[in-house]
Amino acid sequence: MAVRSKIEFASATDAGLVRSFNEDSLAYDEALGLCVLADGMGGYKAGDVASSMATRLVLEEFAAFARDEGGVETQEDGLSVPGAALKRAIERANGAIHRAAQSDKSCQGMGATVAAVIFQGSRAVVAHVGDSRVYRYRDGDLTLLTYDHSLLQEQVGLGLITPEDAKLSHNRNLVTRALGVGPQVKVDVREEGAAGGDIYLLCSDGLNDMVDDADIGLVLAELNANLSLAASQLVQIANDNGGHDNVSVLIARVGARPRPSRGWLRQLLSSFGIA
Length: 275
Hints:
Layout: E1 7-14, E2 24-29, E3 34-41, H1 47-69, E4 75-76, E5 79-80, H2 81-103, E6 111-120, E7 123-129, E8 133-138, E9 141-144, H3 151-157, H4 163-168, E10 188-193, E11 199-203, H5 205-208, H6 213-223, H7 227-240, E12 247-254, H8 262-271
Antiparallel strand pairs: 1-12, 2-3, 3-6, 4-5, 6-7, 7-10, 8-9, 8-11, 11-12
C-alpha cells in the first residue's frame, strides 16, 4: 500500500432539538485512512439501523480490500484501485441494507445517504450517495466536492428554482438516491490530489441546512488547530440555528497540525481578559 500522509480525524454528532433520536452514524479507521458518514432514513422504520449498517459495512469491505489487494495503484474503469474498492464497498453495503429491509418487516422502508473519503498516498477519493456532503477546506477556501442527489438540487440544476429559494423549501429532505432503496445504486466517485494541510469535512444535511457555507468555512479557519473543537462548534451552531434535524460532522486533516490562527489566538486571549 502506498505511503500516505498522516491523517487526523475528529467527529461530533447530536440528535438536534426536534428529533427524538439520532439516525446518523459515523466512523473512521486511522490505519486505513478511511472515514464514513451516513444519515439514516425511515424514522421509526429503522433509519438508525440503515446508517449504522452503512458505516460498518463500508469499513469492513474496504478493510478486506486492503488485506487482499495491498493497495496496488493501478487503474480500473477510470478509477484507481482504492477508488473502485470504495465504490464496491458502498454498493455491497447498499445490497445488504436492501436485503435487510426486504426480509425484516420492522426495517421495511429504511435507507441511508452516505459520504466517504479514503486517503491513499497523495490522493483523496471521495464517494457519496444522497445528500450527505463532503467539503474541502484549502488555503482559506471552502469547496463543496459532492453534488446533492436531491429533488431540490435537480430543480436548481434545471433552473426551475434559485439556490436562495431552495434554502426556504419544505422539500429539502427529498433525496433521489439512497442506500437500501433498491438492489443496486449508483455511487458518485471523484479523485483528487490531497495537499498537506487540507481539511475534508463530511456532514449530514442537518449541518448544511442550518449553517451557511461561509460560516462553516469561518469555523474551520479559526479552529483548524483543534479539529475536535471545530466539529463540536459546528454542531452547536446548527443547534443554535434551530437544530431541526440530526447533525453530524466528521473532519479529516492531511498532514501536521497547524498553529492556531491569529483570530483564534485573539479570541482565546480575550476570553482570559489578556487582549
